[in-house]
Specification:
heterodimer, A: mainly beta, 16-stranded antiparallel beta barrel, 3 helices, B: alpha/beta, Rossmann fold, four-stranded parallel sheet, about 10% strand
Chain lengths: ~450, ~300
């Protein structure tokens, strides 16, 4: 409207000016023309400005200042985030994987070891997560094993901040012991877990129970955590009892050092109890027997991770070093030949103090390319058997110091796909080294959750 | 047990150290930190979670960030999945209800503006695309003005005692910003219609605002680094149909764009991308002054 009025005024001004010019002399005409030109220019500039202003006002009016996101069209919009991890590997193992064991340690189940020879499908992991309501969020990870078994890897409910700084989790979840235990397999820097995790937890330690963390309101990261639960997984066992069977306390401290470095340091202490926790061995004359441990299993550990990236920009180059030391004391009784198939059963006291550590580094030297190195050692100690038991009847518990050196190279075409080549010299068995080669792929479909530090 | 006592004592000491500013603001990215400082003045304490030399898609969810999110009263992020690789971890582990999405203490700036390049086809085969559209919204000053309005509203809401202070600061900023925007639009008029090759789709809003044309990207798909073959193809295409500039953001590795500029003779402009990207881009005003100055310098 305003624009039109000004236009009309300008036209009128020009026509009035031109009729007046007829009566004037040349010089005056020239002067007038200049004046009119200036006038015209002025009007045109103002017109342009006004038009621009109008355009902006229109745009402003069309959209509310604080737009509300468009309402979802159907209930499907409430569907949780779903992601699927596909993984697998090609293994080339020098020694028969059936003979693999961590010499000197009570084995923690069937899930440990280098896997089968040739092509192996890894666990396919389906993750579903969403907010439940304003108070809770839910997280579910289902793994389909290559043997076509379905496992609930994790299934937990979480609340964060209802009590300031406190995050509570309940259900089944990866225990907060140490650093690596909480990291999902697809985010590991190597194909397999360190030997110390395989020996002490029989893989990744999962807890069915409750975890609470409190984050201090400080500029430095300081987190204290408590966890308790049924403790049914190795090194605990199902006890068919009310109440709880495990307790974990952990503390984490972390910060940045300059703009390029950051770290986290942690310490954990966990107590659990095993009741008739069985494992297979051979007696002194080579008969297969099943032995069982009953008693306390106490574990402490320290963990450390340091990450570097030039200016904190991880895209082109970055480096990460991490290390963990774990120590376990088991104190109770050991039963030789629990089902009496050989010369048992015989029960007496048993004590062990065992430890292990690993240190590993992964360096991204080019975008998409990383190289890594890991070294690890375990110390089985010398078990303390009661008088009724003979050490020669427990060949798997003979003193040993397993070692392993691992190197890897991985290539990630995008952040959703990765290929990895890994060599390991595995000295977990008694007096035998195994050279292992793995070629692995990890693919991530769908929603891709953020990664922990 | 001794270390436990020591940790406890240290925690207590740290917990008691006072924070004087009325409002703690956690800014995911430098542009939002700069905006919070403009609008909050000395009534806010702003923590900037990342810098201009870091790729905003790929920040680590570092312990320091979790710790700062814990005490934040207001978190200002871009949203539109730009920070999807790290922000969710901070929000889920910081134990802070005040800054959860949907609460007044959380601002997702991209939700406040009209986004460009909203994909019509959602498929990861298209690279690292953002379902909500291009999230690099800060390089259009009209977007900054819209976000500023909401930041002022939230500051007033969350720190009501200082509402008039924020209101006055907000009005002052808006009027200075409006003047500056008009000046930039006038200054950049000669750039209108220029054809630009961008490393990543991070300057789209700047180009769109100034009427420049993004003719191609150095990345074959968003987030996918260019291969030698793709770069050679770009050289051929650019020889047939030359562009006026090649641009990259300061956080991008310069190698690919440098190579392309050398082969084609097209001027290369490194844009600050956000506050702190260049020494001149020390605040939001400097960001636009410098971006336009760099483009104009290359045009001559």
């Amino acid at each position: 409207m305003l624009g039109k009025n000004i236009l009309a005024a300008a036209v009128a001004a020009v026509s009035v000016a031109s009729s007046y010019a007829l009566a004037a002399d040349e010089a005056e005409i020239q002067k007038l023309r200049e004046e009119i030109d200036t006038l015209k220019e002025g009007y045109e500039t103002r017109l342009r400005q006004l038009e621009q202003h109008l355009e902006k006002t229109d745009q402003g009016a069309a959209r509310p200042a604080t737009p509300i996101q468009s309402a979802p069209a159907s209930a499907n919009a409430f569907n949780p985030a779903i992601s699927l991890i596909l993984g697998g590997q090609l293994n080339n193992l020098q020694r028969d994987p059936e003979t693999w064991q961590i010499g000197g340690f009570i084995p923690g189940g069937e899930e440990i070891g280098p896997g089968n020879r040739s092509f192996n499908l890894g666990e396919s992991e389906l993750t579903v997560s969403a907010n439940i309501d304003p108070y809770f969020s839910g997280f579910f990870v289902m793994a389909v094993t290559p043997e076509n078994d379905v496992e609930v890897e994790e299934g937990y409910v979480q609340n964060t901040g209802s009590v300031p700084g406190v995050t509570v989790k309940f259900g089944r979840f990866l225990s907060g012991f140490g650093y690596l235990n909480e990291i999902h397999a697809h985010a590991w820097d190597f194909v397999d877990l360190p030997l110390v995790h395989q020996a002490f937890f029989g893989g990744q330690l999962k807890e069915e129970g409750l975890q609470a963390r409190w984050l201090a309101p400080t500029p430095v990261f300081l987190e204290l955590g408590l966890e308790t639960g049924r403790g049914a997984n190795f090194p605990g066992s199902e006890r068919n009892k009310n109440g709880v069977n495990s307790g974990l306390f952990f503390a984490h401290v972390g910060d940045d050092v300059g703009v390029s470095n950051s770290y986290r340091f942690g310490a954990s202490y966990r107590v659990t109890r095993a009741q008739d926790r069985p494992y297979d061995d051979l007696d002194s004359v080579g008969n297969p027997v099943t032995n069982a441990f009953t008693g306390d299993s106490k574990m402490w550990g320290v963990d450390f991770v340091w990450k570097w990236a030039p200016n904190g920009n991880t895209v082109d180059r970055n480096f990460k070093v991490q290390a963990e030391y774990l120590h376990r004391d088991e104190d109770g009784s050991l039963t030789f030949d629990a089902d009496g198939s050989a010369t048992g059963p015989l029960t007496d006291s048993y004590k062990s103090k065992q430890s292990g550590w690993y240190v590993q580094g992964a360096y991204q030297f080019l975008p998409r390319w990383r190289a890594g190195l890991r070294y690890e050692e375990l110390d089985s100690g010398i078990p303390d058997f009661g008088a009724a038991l003979s050490a020669s009847d427990f060949p798997r518990l003979a003193p040993n110091d397993p070692k392993r050196t691992t190197a890897m190279l991985d290539f990630s075409p995008s952040e959703f796909s990765r290929f990895r080549l890994q060599f390991a010299r595995d000295e977990a068995r008694f007096d035998e080294a195994d050279n292992q080669v793995f070629l692995q792929y990890i693919m991530s479909l769908g929603a891709h959750g953020a990664h922990k530090f | 047990m001794r270390w436990l006592a020591l940790t406890g004592a240290a925690a207590l000491m740290l917990a008691c150290s006072p924070v004087f500013a009325a409002l703690n603001v956690f800014a995911c990215l430098p542009e939002w930190a700069a905006l919070a400082n403009e609008l909050g003045g000395n009534k806010v304490s702003v923590y900037q979670a990342s810098n201009a030399l870091q790729d905003p898609h790929r920040i680590e969810a570092r312990p320091s960030l979790v710790a700062r999110m814990r005490s934040a009263d207001l978190a200002i992020c871009t949203g539109a999945e730009l920070e999807v690789g790290w922000l969710p971890v901070l929000l889920q582990t910081a134990g802070n209800q005040k800054v959860q999405p949907g609460k007044p203490g959380f601002i997702a700036a991209a939700e406040l503006v009209e986004k460009l390049e909203v994909p019509t086809r959602l498929d990861r085969a298209e690279g690292d695309i953002h379902p909500a559209g291009n999230p690099h919204i800060q390089l259009d000053p009209h977007n900054i003005a819209k976000v500023a309005k909401v930041v002022t509203e939230r500051l007033e809401l969350l720190d009501n005692a200082n509402a008039s202070y924020y209101e006055a600061r907000g009005q002052d900023f808006q009027s200075r910003w409006q003047q500056a925007t008009a000046r930039w639009e006038k200054d950049a008029a000669p750039l209108r219609g220029a054809k630009v090759v961008c490393q990543h789709k991070s300057a789209t809003y700047l180009l769109h605002w100034l009427g420049m044309v993004e003719v191609m990207n150095v990345e074959p798909k968003p987030g996918v680094p260019p291969s030698a073959g793709h770069l050679a193809e770009l050289v051929t295409r650019l020889k047939a149909e030359p562009a006026d500039f090649i641009t990259r953001s300061m956080y991008n590795d310069p190698k690919a764009t440098q190579w392309l500029a050398e082969r084609t003779g097209i001027p290369l402009v490194a844009l600050p991308y956000t506050v702190g990207g260049t020494p001149e881009a020390k605040d939001l005003f400097g960001l636009f002054d410098d971006s336009i100055a760099r483009l104009k310098k290359a045009k001559q």
